Amino acid sequence: MQSLRWAWGYIRKYKMRMFFGLALVLLVSTLNMANPYLAGRIVDDVIYGNNRSLLWPMLGLMVGCTVIRTIVRYGYQLMFENISQNVIFKMRENLFERLMGLDFSFYDRTKTGDIMARMTGDMEAIRHFTAWTIYMIVENVTIFIFAVTFMFSIHVPLTLAILVVTPIIGFFAFRLSNDVKPTFTEIRNQFAKLNSVVQENISGNRVVKAFAKENYEIEKFSNENETFRARNLQSARIWEKYLPVLDSLAGVLTVVMILTGGIMVINGSLTIGELVMFNSLIWALNNPIRSAGWLINDVQRFIASAEKVEELLLTKSQIINGNHQNVQEKQADIEFDHVYFSYGNGPALEDISFTAKPGQTIAIIGPTGSGKSTLVHLLNRFYDVTEGAIYVGGRNVKEWHLHQLRSSMGMVMQDIFLFSDTIEGNIAYGSPNASIEAVQIAAGQAEAHEFIASLPDGYDTIVGERGVGLSGGQKQRIALARALLKNPKVLILDDTTSSVDMETEERIQKTLNSIQEGKTCFIIAHRISSVKEADLILVLNNGRIIERGTHDQLLMQRGYYYNVFQNQYGNFDIHLMAGM
């Protein structure tokens, strides 16, 4: 019932059309009683009563009822389909909006395949329930009730004899409903796992081929596929157990009607016409009984899918949006005040404290896994600090409106992502109203214009999924151009030039130095050449700042930074190194 109440929240907007559609269902159910009644009257009044003048009017009524019933049924089927498409449209929009509002931690723990299963298969199950199952339940129930009522009005003893079987049918239908529900939940969960395996292999197909692991991945997929097959067969076995019983009991109704009704006709307590009516109405009992299994199947599938979609819609982001939206003309101080952070499996950052003044460049260097990217992710509030605080303009970042905070920053992430769009579209992603001239200037600043211009379609070149067809260095430069075009107050470069050659990096650094005036920059890098001009260099190791200072100061300390310099530049006299 919870799933139905939740779905009603979306259907409520169309409740008048829904109720009107259900009223049409009742009309069709009523019209379904007309032809059996008229057929019985033809037998008793026309054939046996020899009143031939009634034949054509009754035949005309039968044809008229059939035509009206067909038109009305077609009309409400279209109506329910239209409602379902509107409902699923809004539901899908809300689901996507929810996905856009969830934080990094949600995506860290949720597989893409599971999300895609909710956006596709689960949505279709809900749509099918709204478009077909709802009116079919009402139609079958009302036809059954109307038929039983009509039968009672014709002959009570024969009706009671037929209905003796129905409690048994109800019992087996109830058992089917209880037994089949868990299997649909298992099928749905396994389908999500199967989706995840496929999605991972499509995204990581180059890694699979590079390590010649095709057979391993095929076997892994086969195992999940076999489990999926087993889950479906488990469901099928439940159907095999109950459906023959339901079908047999439905067939028993016909046997009971013919046997009992024939005896009553022989005894004179039932007319031939009334037996014809019962015979014509027996489908109104058989069809709902036979449909019960399929409708139970659809309802349980809907419940399993609705629970998953509702669960996602009710998921809340751990990042609570602030309400401060004051736009500052000038950049403000950025302060990390004794910041601690953990992903849940041990500390990622411990006691991080420093201040970045407007226009300063803060460089962060350290071994892999030391927490460099995590530090700048906290500044953007992709995650929230565990302890301590981060201040922008003297105000805790938790008080800032997320859109305002993030729109003031331009970031080039370590994991470069390009959309399946033109190169121009990717560069202008953060500034959609930018002119092509502005896009080209940003590309030039990122040392990307030359290689883009050499492509056959230039800036109109369609980038493949995730930048397929471009080298790592080319993707980095496009991502850098995207951040520069935004002209942010805070520029964050996370290992932005790791895939470009030293000459290109040097040109990019010179360009960045010329445009950094007034911008606060955070640079994460492994190369000394990328960080040596910074106003403050932070050396991280195991989540802690182990050294800090300028290039010259860190060289004099002869610590981690000094050793990295030695490895990259060789052994030089300390006094000479200080000036480099």
CATH fold-level name of one domain: ABC transporter transmembrane region fold
- Strand portion, in percent? 5-15%
How are the strands of the biggest sheet laid out side by side?
6-7-8-3-9-10
CATH architecture of one domain: Up-down Bundle
State the major sheet: 6 strands, mixed
Class from secondary-structure proportions? alpha/beta
Number-wise, the strands total 10
Overall shape: it is elongated
Describe the protein in words:
Helix content is 65%, strand content 10%. With 580 residues, it is of the alpha/beta class. The chain has a domain at 2-314: ABC transporter transmembrane region fold (Up-down Bundle), CATH 1.20.1560.10. The strands form two sheets. Strands 6-7-8-3-9-10 form a six-stranded mixed β-sheet, sandwiched between helices. A four-stranded antiparallel β-sheet has the order 2-1-4-5, covered by helices on one side. α2 packs parallel to α6, α6 (112-154) runs antiparallel to α11 and α8 (166-203) runs antiparallel to α10 (214-267). The model is unreliable at 575-580 (pLDDT under 50).
Key traits:
ABC transporter transmembrane region fold, 10% strand, 580 residues, alpha/beta, disordered C terminus, four-stranded antiparallel beta sheet
How would you summarize what this structure contains?
The chain contains 22 helices and ten strands. The chain is α/β, with parallel strands linked by helices and 580 residues long.
Provide the fold topology.
Layout: H1 2-11, H2 15-31, H3 34-48, H4 55-101, H5 104-109, H6 112-154, H7 156-163, H8 166-203, H9 205-210, H10 214-267, H11 272-314, E1 334-342, E2 347-356, E3 361-365, H12 372-379, E4 387-392, E5 395-396, H13 402-407, E6 409-412, H14 423-427, H15 436-445, H16 449-453, H17 472-486, E7 490-494, H18 502-515, E8 520-524, H19 528-531, E9 536-541, E10 544-549, H20 551-557, H21 560-569, H22 574-578
